[in-house]
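The instructor's notes for this session suggest beginning with a concrete chain rather than abstract definitions. Hand out the sequence below and ask the class to guess, before any prediction is shown, which regions might be ordered.
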Amino acid sequence: MPAKSKTPKLTFTSLDAKFPNELACKKYLAGLRWNGEPVCQHCGHKKSYQFSNGDFKCAKCRKKYTVRTGTIFEDSKILLIKWFKASFVMTAHKKGISSHQLAKDIDVTQKTAWFILHRLKFALKSKSFEKPLDGIVETDETYFGGAEKNKHVAKKTQGAQGRCTKSKTPIFGMVERGGKLVAMTVKNTSSKTLQPIIKEHVAVGAKLMTDEWTAYVGLSKHFSHSFIRHGQGQYVNGEVHTNTIEGFWSLFKRGVNGINHWVSVKHLDQYVGEYAFRYNTRKANDGQRFEVVMANLDGRLTYKELIA
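After discussion, reveal the predicted structure:
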C-alpha cells in the first residue's frame, strides 16, 4: 500500500489561514525555490541580505531581488495570495475556470484574471514534461475549430473537411498508457512534422500505437509500430487502439467549449498544455497539484507578449 501523502489537503478557503499575509507567501516561495538558501537572480551568488519585508539584496553584485524575480509573478502588483488562489482554483477544477469566474473569486478585473490565467498556463506548459514516454504509447492528431457543417454558408471554408488545416488548427498528442501525456499544436500533420516530435518524446523500442495515417509510415524502424484501420471501421485489435488519446481529445474539447466557449489560435497551445498538466496530475490531490504549480514558476510572460 502506497504511503499517504504528507501534503495537507488544501481548500480554497484554507489558503487564507495558510498564507495570512504577503510575508508568509514570500517565505513559502523562498523555501520552495531555494530551500532556505536564497540565490541572487542577477549573478547567481548565494549570499544575500534579507529585508524585513522578505526581499533580498545580493552581497556580491549589490542588486535587489525578490522571490518573484524570474517567475511568472515578476513585475506584477497583484498580491501573492491572489496568485496562489488563482493557481489553486485553476487546477482544482477538472475543466479549468474562465477569466470571468476567476475575477469574481479573487476580486480582480476580468482583464487581470485573464492575464493571470495565461501566465499560469505558460508556466504549466513550459515544464510539464520530464522524461520520454515508454511502454505502450498511443499517438493521434485532432483538429480544433468549428465544424464546417455547423457554420453559416457564408462562413464555410471550401475543402476544409478531413485533415485540412484551412480553418482548423491541428493538435498532436502522445500518451503512455497508465502514464504521462504530451500534447501540442502543430503547423500540419505531415510526416516531416510529426515524426521528429515522436522521436523526441518517445523512448526507442516503445510499442507505438497509431491509426493508418500516412505520416506514421516508417516509424517501425525506431519503434514496435502497430496501427488500426479507422477507415475500415476498425477501432480495437487486441491491445492495439488509440482510445486513450482520443478520450483526452474529447475531454479537452468539451472542457474548452464548455468553459471558455472560444479560444484564439495564438493561445490554443497554452490551453492544450493546461489540459495535459491536468491529465498528468490526475492522481494528485488539490494540495499536491497546487505545489506542482508553485514548483513550475520560472519564466515570464508579459501582457504585451500575450496580446501581440
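Then share the key points. The longest strand covers residues 136-144. Residues 21-69 form one domain.
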